[in-house]
TrEMBL record:
Name this polypeptide is given: Antimicrobial peptide ABC transporter periplasmic binding protein SapA
A biological process from GO: peptide transport
Domain of life: Bacteria
Residues annotated as signal peptide: 1-20
Keywords associated with the record: Signal, Transport
GO terms assigned for molecular function: peptide transmembrane transporter activity
Pfam families in the cross-refs: SBP_bac_5
């Protein structure tokens, strides 16, 4: 991808650290110095870039490199902005980086990071590019084998990255008030609110569930205009999608806009049969009101076409996630569903008809004709230009949320090319929900909750009264407050005091605090977050010499990271590791380090 991809919080979170008591910093960005990787005698000098927030990881990396014959120069930056400035200036040989695959599919884990021209890529390798594209079209064992080839080329053949570990997820629940069994901890998708219930279910209608996030400034409440930690969870719960991810990253229709979905045997056509028990909600007097407007196939077509179109909104943040969508249309002929076969030999019509309130007797193109109980359904067909089964994972991303065509077009009356944020108000601007603002709340929510108002302290949500009422997916709790607490230790204190009811990210160093509190319960799950060393492949010795990179690679002993974190980390090979176990493994090998360093020195 050569387009803008994902912002910091939901994608590439980069971290690096300093030695306590021995901190070297650079306050000014200097031009890339191609001679920084010098040799002190026979020892190559490696500049390690990072932020001060991951001190222990940097300590371990430094010690492992020094042990294997390197001198290590630390470039410590206090925050992410300073870090990226140093990285963009090329002032590093290796940088401690991490990536979380929030869509549950391996293509997201590699395309933007390692393909030539990718938004975060410092790699330009035709073999890697080809393998990324080939793997994206495959499933099952074929995909596993192709991603194994990719890992071999990316890590062992060329050492473009050096893996450190896979992280885990730790969630704290105030079980004195909230039923822990109703609080999900998915591997990839954002926290799902509609299942949560108080222990005393009678409180669900009267008490407020208090959740937490660190960021108070919301990028945008338009799901295609933002992809970061300030809005991922909020937009996930405000907008329904065609499909969802299960807690273990399976693509499912449960809790989505579709009763079911089917994939044609060519892996280029995708069909979704829509439910008719979700209407858009709007806000009147700080209450959620049923608009009577069905979340329909027309809204799906509108939403996904704007999702894939870079020019549909100013500062589109997510269009490259959906660039493999070719067409989106409403099916008008039921016989077309009978003639298309799926991989298991069934017709699409059969596949879509498994779990419906009534058999499909008619497909309709106008929402006014929809009546599921009478067998009248809307079916949406999506095509991709090439086989691309992972498109379903991208549809489960928050940017695939279905918005109201009427509500969005009523607000976005400006010309996108000449949009001025100082004078123009776009759908989803946080100013329209901020207390004291002169603008009216114009949100139209297709999901289980709608944002009523926010201030610097909290965001207030209420239940969508027209969201799958009477089904198991109807939201349990009426009112939710998302409390903004930037400091994680303060958030943990708030959890212990019952000021918040769920802390989605308990620091792994504080899990014993949660486990030792009788009012709390700790939940643990696998995650898709991988930490790794990223090599500078432009202007430095690490760019010129694969032998030097491989010497660094084989200096890394992942067991030492796992031991330090008391078993709360797992071995990694690449950013694909949490998703597909290719069978490859990185072993620390000082003999190989010496061989590669010798080859490097001889080539100079």
């Amino acid at each position: 991808m050569n387009k803008k991809l994902f912002t910091l919080a939901s994608t590439a979170t980069v971290a690096a650290v300093a030695l306590a008591g021995c901190v070297e910093t650079k306050s000014d960005v200097k031009e890339n110095d191609s001679a920084t990787t010098e040799t002190a005698g026979a020892k190559p000098v490696i500049e390690l870039l990072g932020m001060a927030s991951s001190e222990q990881d940097m300590n371990i990396v430094r010690d492992q490199l020094v042990k294997n014959g390197f001198d290590v120069k630390l470039n410590i930056q206090p925050d992410y902005g300073s870090f990226t400035a140093q990285q963009d200036a090329g002032n590093f040989d290796i940088a401690i980086s991490s990536w979380t695959t929030v869509t549950g599919n391996p293509d997201y884990a590699v395309r933007g990071l390692f393909k030539t021209g990718g938004d975060y890529s410092r790699t330009s390798d035709e073999t890697v590019d080809k393998l990324i594209d080939e793997a994206s079209t495959l499933t099952g064992d074929e995909a596993k084998e192709k991603y194994k080839e990719l890992e071999q080329a990316l890590v062992f053949d060329n050492a473009y990255i050096a893996p450190l570990y896979i992280s885990q997820k730790f969630q704290g629940i105030y079980k004195a008030e909230v039923n822990p069994d109703t609080v999900r901890l998915p591997k990839s998708r954002a926290q799902a609110w509609e299942t949560i219930s108080f222990n005393d279910e009678g409180k669900n209608a009267s008490e407020t569930l208090v959740l937490h996030q660190a960021l108070a400034s919301l990028t945008s409440l338009d799901p295609v205009k933002a992809n970061d930690g300030s809005i991922n969870t909020l937009n996930t719960n405000m907008y329904v999608r065609l499909v969802n991810l299960s807690d273990t990253d399976e693509v499912v229709s449960e809790g989505s806009l579709s009763y079911d979905h089917a994939v044609a045997e060519n892996n280029e056509e995708y069909y979704f049969v829509l439910r008719d028990d979700i209407n858009f909600a709007k806000v009147e007097g700080e209450k959620a009101v049923d608009t009577g407007d069905l979340v329909s196939a027309e809204d799906v077509v509108f939403s996904l076409n704007r999702a894939k179109d870079e020019t549909s909104v100013p500062d589109h943040r997510t269009y490259s996630i959906h660039e493999n969508i070719d067409t989106v249309e409403i099916v008008s002929d039921i016989t077309s569903l009978e003639s298309v076969k799926t991989a298991d030999g069934k017709s699409v019509l059969e596949e879509l008809s498994d779990e419906l309130p009534a058999a499909i007797s008619e497909v309709v193109t106008d929402e006014i004709d929809v009546d599921n109980a009478a067998g009248k359904y809307q079916v949406v067909k999506l095509t991709t230009p090439n086989p691309f089964p992972q498109v379903l994972n991208y549809l489960a991303h928050q940017s695939g949320g279905i918005v109201s065509e009427a509500a969005v077009t009523a607000v976005n009356t400006f010309d996108v090319a000449s949009y001025d944020p100082n004078t123009d108000i776009a759908y989803g601007d946080q100013s329209t929900v901020t207390e004291g603002a002169s603008y009216a709340n114009h949100l139209a929510a297709s999901g289980p909750y709608i944002l009523v108002k926010k201030n610097d302290y909290e965001a207030t949500f209420v239940k969508n009264p027209a969201y799958q009422a009477g089904t198991e997916n109807e939201p349990k709790i009426e009112n939710i407050s998302v409390r903004f607490i930037q400091d994680n230790d303060s958030a943990l204190s708030a959890l212990r005091n019952g000021e918040i009811h769920v802390l989605q990210s308990v620091p792994e160093t504080k899990t014993d605090v949660v486990e030792g509190d009788e009012n709390l319960q700790l939940k643990t799950a696998d995650s898709n977050a991988v930490s790794y060393l990223l090599f500078n492949t432009s202007g430095r010795e690490t760019a010129k010499s694969a032998d030097l990179r491989k010497a660094v690679l084989h200096s890394i002993n992942q067991d030492e990271f796992i031991s330090y974190y008391q078993g709360k980390k797992k071995p990694a090979v690449s950013t694909v590791s949490p998703l597909i176990d290719t069978g490859l493994k990185l072993e620390a090998d000082s003999k190989k380090v010496k061989e590669f360093l010798k080859a490097y020195n001889e080539s100079k």
